[in-house]
Structure formats: C-alpha cells, structure tokens
Specification:
This protein has about 375 residues and is an alpha+beta fold. The protein has two domains: about 130 residues, Beta-Lactamase, CATH 3.30.450; about 160 residues, DD-peptidase/beta-lactamase superfamily (Beta-lactamase, 3-Layer(aba) Sandwich), CATH 3.40.710. It has twelve helices and eleven strands. Strands 2-1-11-10-9-8 form a six-stranded antiparallel beta sheet, with helices on both faces. A three-stranded antiparallel beta sheet has the order 3-5-4. The chain is globular.
Length: about 375
C-alpha cells in the first residue's frame, strides 16, 4: 500500500504564521553589535559577553552623554573590557580633574603615617596662627572631609567668580594655596559640608610644608614630586602619571593630574585592596577605611572620596540601587569616574566629557554595567 503524503496545502497554510513569528522575533531582537563593541570585551568576562558589550556600547552611543574617551572594567584585578573613543588609545594620558583629590588624600595619609602631619590637630597653616584668628581651629580631618568652614564657593555663578576658577585660572593661579588660605570663615569649623577644590590645594600646601621648610618653588616642586612618585604613583604602577604645580611650587592636587585609563584603574584597584599593591601596604589600611567612612556632615562623602550613599535625607545615592552600598568613587569634572565596588571585586573607569545636566544619566548607564556582575 503506498505511503500517504500530507497535502501540499498544509505547508502553504502554515507559511503566514511562520512568517509572522519570524517577523516578530526580528522586530524585537536587539540590533547587531558593531565589531568594535564586542571586541572590546574579553572572550570570558565572567558575565554575558554580549550584555556587557551592549551596556558599554550604550555609554559610547548615547549622544546626550557627550564624549566618552575611555571605559575600562576590571574584575578581580583583570581587565575584562577596554574601549576607547576616536583619537584616544591605551597610551593616551587623560585629565582626572577632581579625581586628583583622592590621590592627594592618600598622600596626606602617608604623611600622617610618617608622623609629619596629625589628623586631629589644627592644620599648621602659618597665615592662620595669629592670635584670635578663628581659622586656627581648623583641623586636618576637617579639611579632608570638606568641612573647614572656609568661604570657598565651588561651581558658583557667574563662573568667573567661582573660587575654584579664580584659584586655578585667574587672580589666584600663581599662588593657589595663598588664595585658598586667605578666605575667611563662613561657618564654624566642622559644622557644615562644602565641597571645595581650594581645601584640597591647602592640603597640598601642607604636604609641601611637611616635607621642606623651603619656600623656593623649585625645591617645593621637587620634594613633593619625589615623595609622590616614590611612595605612591610608581609603586601603584601609575607610570604614565603627570602632575602639575603652580608658580609657587604647590601641587595642584585638587584638579590637575593626568594618567592613562589603565593607570587610573590601577589606582582604583589600589583603593579596592585597602591601600596595598601585591601585598605591600603603601598607606595604612585604616587610612583607606577613614577615606570611605561617611563624614559627619555629609553621609555621601568620606575624605576626598564620594560614597554611594544619599548626601541628605530623602535624597538618592550617587548611583542607583543597581550599585552596592559599599561602592565609592573618585569623581572628576565633566564626568570622570573611577568606581570601586569592593563587594563585587570590581573597578570601572570612565573618562570623557559630559555636561552637568546629563551627569545623572551617565551615572545610570555606568550603574547598568556594574549591575551585570554578581556579589553586590
């Protein structure tokens, strides 16, 4: 008996449904990744390679975020993703802006560990030592935690009257520490938080004074440079780092340090490891703990580091709930970030140019990347 075959009409009847299903899948499928996006992620990053590549690509592709020049992700100390913008590469030094403050904060910790400075004593600024000057009550701890009480207006309007602009580029540029230290109090020391680049320049001046009695700019530059590179930058592996000084020989520790994205990532890893590199403790672990401990006047800030906590009651933290609470970050002008998530053993670096109105969106995109990793 011959085998019966199904009528030819059945495949024809099913064809529209099959086409419809295939069309629906195609319509909902994400667009294909550009080769550069996928190749920026190692073959086995520990999470979905495609999802990580897409999350990174979203940072580069979003035009509202301005220009992303470099983005690196390190998991357990291993570079698992690395991508650069046009004209930028692995050897390109990029300005950290206020991420420099964290390097200055670590240097101060080393000087405290050496006994050259004291955290809880009044800051030895000669201009404040006159009898009756209330600024003589400002402690090193208060400067580090941005609660000196000095009248330092950051990001003020108009911009040319803002203290960091005047200090860095206008009337204070030749002797930045003198400009910062000359400002009067507007609050009792310790009572109010006010983010201030000028405070970090005062810390840089104190570092120079702790290392030399000379006021010769060349001597000040040399002793601070030698200390910073020998004790911190070279051991961390930041071989590309370039730091700038003003005409008075003061390290511009608030703003003007440059390094490659990889070297900024090494600094993040150094912080993630509690101030140690390959088992060598460059600064006491307790100092890093102090830097990431919420300060009394702003739970979202530690000591020259930003924390993933609300700055005030009912405010949102620096990053969304996608990022673990123990995360902290070096943050710089125009969207420079070294984000460290200890519980995930993760460090993320983003360098570029994003205007302030879009900064929250940028942080959300970076949080999407962090959220891909377990352990938070």
């Amino acid at each position: 008996m011959p085998t019966r075959r199904p009528p030819l009409i059945l495949p024809l009847l099913l064809l529209p449904a099959l086409i419809g299903c295939g069309g629906e899948r195609a319509e909902n499928a994400p667009p294909p990744l550009a080769p550069a996006a996928l190749s920026a992620v190692v073959a086995k990053p520990g999470v979905s390679r495609e999802r990580l590549a897409r999350a990174i690509d979203a940072v580069f592709a979003d035009e509202t975020l301005g220009e992303t020049r470099a983005l690196l992700v390190l998991s357990e100390g291993r570079v698992i993703a690395e991508r650069y913008g046009a004209g930028v590469g692995r050897d390109t030094r990029l300005l950290g802006w206020s991420m420099s403050k964290t390097i200055t904060g670590v240097m101060i910790g080393q000087l405290v560990a050496d006994g050259r400075l004291r955290l809880n004593e009044t800051a030895p600024v000669p201009a404040w030592q006159r009898s009756g000057d209330p600024r003589g009550e400002i402690t090193l701890r208060q400067l580090l935690q941005m609660r000196s009480g000095l009248r330092h207006t950051e990001a003020g309007e108009p911009v040319y009257q803002s203290d960091e602009v005047r200090m860095l580029f206008l009337d204070g540029r030749d002797d930045m520490a003198a400009y910062a230290e000359a400002q009067p109090l507007e609050h009792e020391p310790g009572r109010a938080f006010e983010y201030s680049s000028a405070s970090t320049v005062i810390l840089a001046d104190l570092a120079a004074r702790a290392l030399t009695e000379s006021r010769d700019p060349a001597v000040r530059r040399q002793v601070v440079r030698d200390f910073l590179y020998t004790r911190l930058l070279d051991p961390v592996g930041m071989k590309s780092a370039v730091v700038e000084f003003d005409a008075a020989g003061t390290l511009i520790g608030s703003s003007l340090m440059h390094a490659t994205a990889r070297d900024w990532a090494k600094f993040g890893e150094f912080l993630r490891n509690g101030g140690a590199v390959k088992g060598a403790q460059l600064v006491p672990r307790g100092w890093v703990d102090f830097m990431i401990r919420p300060s009394p006047r702003n739970p979202g800030y530690g000591a020259q580091l930003w924390l993933n906590r609300p700055e005030k009651k009912d405010e949102v933290p620096m990053f969304t709930g996608k990022v673990p609470r123990d995360a902290f970050a070096c943050v710089g002008h125009l969207g420079q970030y070294v984000i460290v998530s200890p519980s995930q053993r993760l460090t993320l670096v983003r360098l570029g140019k994003t205007e302030g109105s879009h900064r929250a969106r940028l942080r959300d995109k970076l949080a999407d990347i962090v959220a891909l990793f377990p352990g938070g």
